[in-house]
Automatic annotation (TrEMBL):
Protein encoded by which gene: SETD1A
Domain SET residue range list: 1-81
Full protein name: Histone-lysine N-methyltransferase setd1a
DNA-binding among keywords: no
Source organism superkingdom: Eukaryota
KW RNA-binding (keyword) present: no
Subcellular location: Nucleus
InterPro entries: Post-SET_dom, Set1-like, SET_dom, SET_dom_sf
């Protein structure tokens, strides 16, 4: 509920992109206004990485793992795995197996 309200508020404030990551059913991390550079990793339908939530000393952390060797200057991507919704978000990854939408 808090994340939904933030997303609406960001839209009202003219913030074009929000960086919300669902950790589990009850927890969403909001890196919209602060966070490290990983928040800018783009979605891809055939990504070279995947995101995993791990627990370190009772704190949940998001870790990005490589699925394959990544070349210098190659973009790092992962599948956002957004839930299916009626309002579709177009995918712009451009890969051969692109699903067409993020959700």
């Amino acid at each position: 509920m808090v994340a939904d309200n933030r997303e609406k508020r960001y839209a009202q404030q003219g913030i074009g992109s929000s960086y919300l990551f669902r950790v589990d059913h009850d927890t969403i991390i909001d890196a919209t206004k602060c966070g490290n550079l990983a928040r800018f990793i783009n979605h891809c339908c055939t990504p070279n990485c995947y995101a995993k939530v791990i627990t370190i000393e009772s704190q949940k952390k998001i870790v990005i793992y490589s699925k394959q060797p990544i070349a210098v200057n190659e973009e790092i991507t992962y599948d956002y795995k957004f839930p299916l919704e009626e309002n579709k978000i177009p995918c712009l990854c451009g890969t051969e197996n692109c699903r067409g939408t993020l959700n």
